[in-house]
Amino acid sequence: MRGVSLPHLEYNYRVMKVSAILVLGGGITSEGTLTRGSMAPVRLAVERFNEIKPTWLIMSGGFSYKADFRPAISEAQAMKDYAVSLGVLPDKILTEAESKNTFGNILFTKLNLLEPLKIYDILVIGTPGHSNERLEYVLAKVLGNSYNYNIEIEHIAGILYEDRELASIKKTRLAFDDVANGNSAELYRRLRKFHRAYKS
């Protein structure tokens, strides 16, 4: 099984079974308010959730390791609260609040939610600043061949950090290219050892 990434306007959510929709965090203020880059993915996720009716809506994100503050609540909780305000029942929403970057979003969601709950078919909603290339690489590296996934990103004018995404995928490849896709234990070990967000 492998993932498929399709542009927002061409995405056909009926081409695959979807057990869960995963929303990646995109930023939060110190007061616990979502940024514009975080609100857009939640709105899109709720729209898709109402259309395809998967079992779960998953919100992923603690707070960015680049932030010079600790927010009042996690990104995941703030996204959940926003989704509830848009009509989603609270007991349909799962949260992952350990991650501090995109790679962590996917890895900790896999370890803490996808594997324990046996969720294998997901729609991943990226932030407006994510590139398809970066998400495709991270998803393939973390999930391996045991999952089906699609990526959907609703880009917003002015929010696409091409230079940042290119630099990020270069660093990610240097750290993880030689690790077998889906090898969670080694990916976790490397993340904890080499990424400053997770060093203990």
Biggest sheet: strands, sense, closure?
Answer: 6 strands, parallel
Total number of helices: 6
Q: Label the overall shape.
A: globular
Distance N terminus to C terminus?
Answer: 35 Å
Order of strands, widest sheet: 1-6-5-2-3-4
Helix content: 40-55%
Rg result:
15 Å
Average pLDDT number: 86
Spans of at least 5 consecutive residues whose pLDDT stays below 50 are 1-11
The sequence of SSEs as H and E is EEHEHEHEHEHH
Task: Report the β-strand fraction as a percent range.
Answer: 5-15%
- What structural category arises from helix and sheet content? alpha/beta
Molecular structure report:
The chain is 41% helix and 13% strand. It is built from six helices and six strands. The protein has helices at residues 36-52, 75-85, 102-117, 132-143, 162-176, 184-194; strands spanning 4-5, 20-24, 56-60, 93-96, 121-125, 148-152. Strands 1-6-5-2-3-4 form a six-stranded parallel sheet, with helices on both faces. The relative contact order is 0.19. The model is unreliable at 1-11 (pLDDT under 50).
